[in-house]
Amino acid sequence: AERTNLAGVRHILLVLSGKGGVGKSTLSTELALALRDAGKRVGILDVDLCGPSIPRMLRVQDSAVHQCDTGWVPVFVGQDKAIALMSIGFLLERPDDAVVWRGPKKNALIKQFVTDVAWGDLDFLIVDTPPGTSDEHISTVEALRPHQLLGAILVTTPQ
C-alpha cells in the first residue's frame, strides 16, 4: 500500500524550520497555490499535528475526509479541485481541539498519512511539518524514504 498510494506522486517537498511562527504553513499554502496556477497537480500533507492551520488557510476547515478502497480520500480545494489536502484538522471533532498525544501515537499517524492517503496523480506533494526538530520530522522522513524526494525548504527568520 505504501508504494501504491504515492506511486503517482512525482516530487515530494518538505517544508521545515527550527522553530515555530516563521511561516511554514503560509509558505506551503502559497507554494501550492503558485504551482496550481502554473498548471501543476498539487497535494499538501499537513503533518503539523498540534497546529493544523492549512485547512483554515484554504477555507476548507469544515470538510470531512472519506474512506475509499485504497485509504483516505484527501479534501480537494477550490472549484477546480486542483489541490488535494490531508490534515489532522479534518479528523478532529472541532477544528480548535487540542492534540495532546505522546510521540508513538503522533508517529503512527504520520506513517498512516504517508501510507493510507489516496493521492492519485500529483506533480508535487508539499509536506508541511511541525515547528522544531522533533521525532515527527524523523518519522516523516523515514516514512517517505522509499519515495522520490525532491528536497526541502528550510524557513528561517533573521533573528
Instruction: Give the radius of gyration.
Output: 14 Å
Query: Uncertain runs with pLDDT below 50, 5 residues or more?
Result: none
- And the CATH topology? Rossmann fold
**CA(first)-CA(last) distance:** 43 Å
Major β-sheet, in short?
6 strands, mixed
Indicate the CATH class.
Answer: Alpha Beta
Number of separate domains: 1
CATH architecture: 3-Layer(aba) Sandwich
The name of the CATH superfamily reads P-loop containing nucleotide triphosphate hydrolases
Q: β content, as a range?
A: 15-25%
Number of strands: 8
Helix percent band: 25-40%
Structural class based on helices, strands and sheet pairing: alpha/beta
Label the overall shape. globular
Total DSSP helices:
5
Order of helices and strands: HEHEHEEEEHEHE
* Physical arrangement of strands within the biggest beta sheet: 5-6-2-7-1-8
Average per-residue pLDDT, rounded, comes to 84
